[in-house]
């Protein structure tokens, strides 16, 4: 039987417990998931590409089912190049559906053989977003409930 592979793409700036929740649940469905750090020219990241790649690799260094890569172009082009048939996306009850549905529909139009699978973010993380985490952190708020401990340590180190 062929290995079931998927990709999970995002800017992951920073990688949150919500992202981790989606990835860990997707690992129950797929044999291998490539976490793709998407580089968005319209965003001003807290961490550069290499720092984000390193953080995610460190978080999942003990899990051979998780690969980590980055990509500057369209995610469907990455999927096509790497022969990955499924894109995993997380949904929060905060207005994600319309945007994600539009993106999945466009991806399907561009590359019909790639399917998008949506996973609902766990209830304890549904309100967490990287943007909110950065804003709270920038204002001196406590983000320990929103990011993995290793990410928090990198954020403190990056700030100091």
Molecular structure report:
There is one protein chain. This protein has helices at residues 17-26, 49-59, 75-82, 96-110, 130-138, 149-159; strands at 5-10, 32-38, 66-71, 86-91, 115-120. By secondary structure, the chain is α/β, with parallel strands linked by helices. The chain has a single domain (5-159), classed as Rossmann fold (3-Layer(aba) Sandwich). The longest helix has 15 residues, at 96-110.
Q: Specify the biggest β-sheet.
A: 5 strands, parallel
Radius of gyration: 15 Å
> Architecture, according to CATH?
3-Layer(aba) Sandwich
Q: How many beta-strand runs?
A: 5
Helix-and-strand structural type: alpha/beta
Q: Could you state the order of secondary-structure elements as H and E?
A: EHEHEHEHEHH
Q: Quick check: average pLDDT?
A: 91
Instruction: Report helical residue fraction.
Output: 40-55%
- The CATH homology group name: HUPs
Low-confidence stretches: none
Supply the CATH class: Alpha Beta
Counted by DSSP, the helix tally is 6
Count of the separate structural domains: 1
> Widest sheet: strand order?
3-2-1-4-5
Q: Separation of termini?
A: 50 Å
Shape: globular
Percent strand: 15-25%
Q: Enter the CATH topology name.
A: Rossmann fold
